[in-house]
């Protein structure tokens, strides 16, 4: 038998993977739409892409031989050390495309701190404490097999509840925080390529210290988005305590060096101020107050949560209605537009017989594929032990989906909270993939495109805690998610790669154990 040349073999593999990707999406559209005209158009489009892609690969393979390299990425986990202090462990994933297998290794470090955000490029923003006893943020990444820390200068949040970190376009990082005086609100942007802090840095100083909510209510008390910051404060309404938000936008403004500089100068209290470290490169920035006094809940009933994605702030919390002593559960949305005056405020009451089973949860991959795409989701328990997943995306999506009865029956109404719900956004045309850590200590997975079908992670031991990351490569053929069960220290106990395959017209999800190397 004649051997197939390496270039032809590579093209055949590429052709096979490309056909799987396009036809799996096509089959899913068949199930959902049953529109034959759409099918024919999709087949023609796929055929054209096939031909173009094969010619491209053939030309590339003759120009230079293609070597299949292993894909690597890292994630940082906070683990309780022998001295009961939190240290970081590095989980190093590797997928060998040639062998079609994934493995992982654990690298121990002596770095103390808690990851606030794992970035899509494998780096992490870590909170630690410096020698002066102040909270400090570091940009931590792996270089070779060495862990490197870059200190983010002059970001001093008052506590864990006073800082929020968010990934932006191009791997950049937005940071918002409230300083220890409870008067100074800060914003900074870290470049994702140079890792320099801070290309944009701005402050706003309130006239009086803010009265913050209790540490357990609507945390963190500062949220940051793209060029926006929200801060919470306590007020009084009809003698009852309520929590309001103030919304700020980062925009052009005067340089802070005019009022605050090395060796002198004071901030103008009650106005926008800026510290601009690279005025010649970036230009002056400031935090400008664009909306205030929006009520988002009351700590009289601590059940509630809030979050931010894209340009939307969302809160779930109990409110005190006018001329009433009963509390009312409401969903409050504040949607920010491009201009300072473009702000949409939407409030919806939720039935009093609904219990929240999870906190507001952003998609696991909210910054992969399309920046800012996605939404927020939560679980609700309703009479008859029915459990619904509610999705919110701007004003275009605000719907609830009933979970499979078998999955819903395994969720205790009193057993929800953080770490219960995870989901992967599949774009605006498809419903998400959902993971639920149920009260029976099993992790369920189901695709809302076909909610009656579900799978259970085949863990050897009961799952008390889990962490889920997206697949380590952009190619879904290699897996869509990596799921780790954690032991009592927070270290990896078992690790699985979740893949999905088409068997005829049926979509099957497969859990593959990942071996430690």
Helix content: 10-25%
Radius of gyration: 25 Å
> What is the averaged pLDDT score?
76
Spatial order of the strands in the main sheet? Answer: 8-9-10-11-15
Tell me what portion of residues adopts beta-strand conformation.
35-45%
Describe this structure in words.
The longest helix has 28 residues, at 6-33. This protein has helices at 6-33, 36-63, 405-408; strands at 70-80, 86-96, 101-112, 114-118, 124-129, 135-143, 146-151, 163-167, 173-178, 184-190, 200-205, 222-224, 228-237, 240-252, 272-274, 285-297, 304-309, 312-319, 328-336, 343-349, 355-356, 376-382, 386-393, 397-402, 421-424, 433-437, 443-447, 454-456, 466-470, 481-486, 492-503, 506-513, 515-516. It is built from 3 helices and 33 strands. It is 12% helix and 44% strand. The protein has a 5-stranded antiparallel sheet, with no helix packed on it. It has a 4-stranded mixed sheet with strand order 1-2-3-33, with no helix packed on it. The chain is mainly beta. It is globular, with a radius of gyration of 25 Å.
Features:
3 helices, 33 strands, five-stranded antiparallel beta sheet, mainly beta, four-stranded mixed beta sheet, 517 residues
Which SSEs are present, and which pair or pack?
Blueprint: H1 6-33, H2 36-63, E1 70-80, E2 86-96, E3 101-112, E4 114-118, E5 124-129, E6 135-143, E7 146-151, E8 163-167, E9 173-178, E10 184-190, E11 200-205, E12 222-224, E13 228-237, E14 240-252, E15 272-274, E16 285-297, E17 304-309, E18 312-319, E19 328-336, E20 343-349, E21 355-356, E22 376-382, E23 386-393, E24 397-402, H3 405-408, E25 421-424, E26 433-437, E27 443-447, E28 454-456, E29 466-470, E30 481-486, E31 492-503, E32 506-513, E33 515-516
Parallel strand pairs: 3-33
Antiparallel strand pairs: 1-2, 2-3, 4-5, 5-6, 6-7, 8-9, 9-10, 10-11, 11-15, 12-13, 13-14, 14-16, 17-18, 18-19, 19-20, 21-22, 22-23, 23-24, 25-26, 26-27, 27-28, 29-30, 30-31, 31-32
Helix pairs in contact: 1-2
């Amino acid at each position: 038998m004649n051997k197939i040349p390496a270039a032809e073999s590579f093209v055949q593999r590429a052709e096979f993977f490309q056909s799987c990707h396009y036809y799996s999406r096509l089959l899913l559209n068949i199930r959902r739409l049953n529109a034959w005209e759409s099918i024919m158009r999709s087949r023609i489009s796929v055929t054209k892409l096939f031909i173009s892609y094969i010619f491209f690969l053939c030309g590339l393979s003759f120009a230079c031989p293609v070597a299949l390299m292993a894909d690597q990425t890292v994630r940082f986990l906070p683990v309780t050390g022998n001295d009961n202090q939190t240290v970081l462990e590095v989980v190093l994933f590797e997928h060998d495309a040639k062998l079609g297998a994934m493995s992982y290794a654990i690298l121990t470090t002596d770095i103390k701190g808690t990851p606030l955000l794992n970035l899509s490029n494998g780096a992490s923003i870590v909170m630690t404490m410096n020698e002066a006893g102040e909270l400090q943020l570091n940009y931590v990444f792996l270089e070779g097999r060495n862990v490197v820390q870059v200190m983010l200068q002059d970001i001093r949040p008052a506590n864990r509840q006073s800082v929020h970190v968010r990934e932006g376009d191009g791997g950049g990082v937005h940071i918002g925080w409230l300083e220890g005086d409870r008067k100074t609100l800060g914003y900074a942007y870290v470049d994702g390529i140079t890792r320099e802090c801070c290309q944009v840095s701005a402050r706003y100083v309130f006239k009086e210290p803010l009265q913050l909510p209790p540490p357990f209510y609507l945390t963190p008390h500062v949220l940051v988005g793209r060029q926006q910051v929200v801060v919470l404060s306590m007020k009084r309404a009809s003698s009852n305590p309520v929590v309001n938000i103030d919304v700020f936008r980062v925009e052009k403004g005067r340089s802070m060096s005019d009022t605050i500089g090395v060796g002198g100068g004071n901030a103008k209290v009650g106005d926008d101020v800026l510290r601009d470290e690279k005025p010649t490169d970036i230009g002056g920035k400031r935090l400008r107050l664009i909306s205030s006094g929006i009520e988002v809940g009351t700590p009289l009933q601590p059940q509630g949560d809030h979050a931010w994605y894209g340009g939307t702030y969302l809160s779930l919390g109990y409110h005190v209605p006018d001329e009433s002593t009963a509390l009312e559960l409401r969903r409050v949305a504040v949607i920010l537009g491009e201009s300072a005056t473009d702000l949409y405020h939407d409030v919806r009451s939720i039935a009093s017989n609904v219990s929240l089973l999870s906190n507001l949860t952003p998609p696991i991959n909210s910054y992969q594929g399309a920046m800012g795409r996605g939404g927020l989701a939560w679980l609700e328990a309703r009479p008859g032990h029915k459990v619904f997943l509610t999705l919110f995306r701007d004003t275009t999506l605000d719907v609830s989906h009933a979970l499979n009865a078998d999955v819903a029956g395994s969720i205790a109404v009193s057993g929800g909270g953080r770490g219960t719900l995870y989901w992967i956004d599949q774009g605006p045309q498809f419903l998400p993939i959902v993971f639920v850590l149920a009260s029976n200590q099993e992790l369920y997975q189901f695709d809302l495109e076909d909610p009656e079908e579900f799978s259970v992670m085949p863990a050897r031991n009961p799952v008390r805690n889990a962490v889920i990351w997206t697949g380590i490569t952009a190619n879904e053929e290699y897996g869509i998610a990596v799921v780790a069960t954690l032991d009592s220290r927070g270290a990896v106990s078992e690790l699985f790669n979740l893949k999905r395959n088409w068997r005829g017209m049926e979509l099957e999800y497969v859990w593959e154990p990942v071996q430690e190397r």
